[in-house]
């Protein structure tokens, strides 16, 4: 199928398009037919997670601070992304955030409420903020294909107060779960999936034309360099790293994470860097000096001193920044540096 709406002349493409991979570039890319280039750009569109918080009758959108790469490659890639993804600007401050109802996930609170009607709710009805969410979003968002919702943390059967059936184009509903705690939270996630399916089954009785979307657990994790960090900034740049429909799949992913952590630890300390070894050696030398100083000081104490507390203050431990970290010291590969320490 030819897409004439975003065709770019070969001469223009040659000036703007170049596929770069590391130190090399694919200079023949501009010579490809426009239809092939467009398909390549389209395949490069990566889904993102855009959060939406409904508060005081306003929708506040937040997302990754880094914009979609295709927006900055060239004019052709940008036009392809906008044409295929139907991107719309949802926030201009503090960052420009574009949302695609075709590719991106809209993450929001489904507003869980009990299926069992209570007498108190008759006199004190719940807030309408969540119920009005589907009506509060722009019309183009009603065409979104993918959403992500917070789980139902209650141990009761619940239903979403957001009218999910209003999103008639919906194909996928993911229950958000953090990668590091997916094993512990598996029951909560699976119960939430059951609640969503039950909500749609009830709705389908009244309207048989309703299509029940795929419901699964969406596993969020840090990728790239962020995945190797212990601490992260307040900005949530986690990515969707897995989609699981059952407990077995979540356990397999948890086991894979443990194996990756073990390999990282093994590779990190199998061949310690020279700087790390020098640090350990300095710590060992400092420890020897302290022990020697402590021994000579104890021998020089006057007999009238009844306790060490009465003697001049002794340095009992080296500065904190000179000693190796606990994980480093506990490694079997570096334990040789501590042999002989007393």
From TrEMBL:
Residues 26-106 form the 2EXR domain. Residues 287-320 are annotated as: Disordered. Pfam families: 2EXR (PF20150). This is 2EXR domain-containing protein. PANTHER family: 2EXR DOMAIN-CONTAINING PROTEIN (PTHR35910). It comes from Amylocarpus encephaloides.
């Amino acid at each position: 199928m030819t897409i004439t709406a975003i065709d770019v002349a070969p001469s223009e493409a040659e000036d703007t398009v170049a596929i770069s991979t590391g130190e090399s570039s694919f200079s023949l890319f501009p010579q490809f037919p426009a239809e092939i280039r467009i398909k390549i750009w389209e395949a490069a569109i990566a889904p993102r997670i855009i959060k939406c918080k409904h508060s005081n009758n306003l929708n506040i959108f937040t997302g990754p601070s880094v914009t979609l790469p295709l927006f900055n490659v060239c004019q052709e890639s940008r036009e392809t992304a906008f044409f295929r993804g139907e991107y719309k600007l949802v926030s201009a401050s503090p960052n420009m955030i574009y949302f695609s109802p075709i590719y991106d996930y809209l993450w929001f609170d489904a507003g869980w409420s009990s299926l069992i009607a209570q007498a108190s709710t008759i006199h004190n009805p719940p807030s309408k903020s969540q119920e009005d969410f589907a009506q509060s979003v722009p019309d183009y968002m009603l065409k979104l294909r993918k959403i992500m919702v917070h789980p139902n943390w209650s141990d009761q059967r619940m239903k979403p107060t957001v009218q999910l059936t209003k999103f008639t184009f919906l194909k996928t509903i993911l229950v958000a779960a953090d990668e590091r705690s997916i094993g512990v939270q598996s029951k909560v996630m699976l119960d939430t999936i059951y609640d969503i399916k039950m909500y749609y089954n009830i709705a389908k009785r009244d309207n048989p034309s309703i299509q029940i979307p795929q419901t699964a657990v969406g596993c969020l994790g840090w990728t790239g360099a962020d995945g190797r960090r212990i601490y992260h900034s307040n900005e949530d740049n986690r990515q969707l790293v897995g989609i699981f429909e059952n407990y077995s799949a979540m356990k397999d992913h948890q086991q894979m994470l443990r194996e990756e952590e073990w390999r990282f630890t093994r590779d990190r300390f199998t061949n310690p860097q020279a700087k790390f070894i020098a640090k350990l050696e300095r710590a060992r030398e400092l420890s020897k000096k302290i022990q020697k100083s402590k021994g000579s000081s104890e021998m020089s104490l006057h007999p009238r001193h009844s306790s060490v507390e009465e003697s001049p203050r002794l340095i009992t431990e080296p500065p904190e920044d000179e000693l190796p970290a606990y994980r480093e010291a506990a490694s079997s590969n570096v334990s040789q540096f501590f042999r002989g320490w007393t």
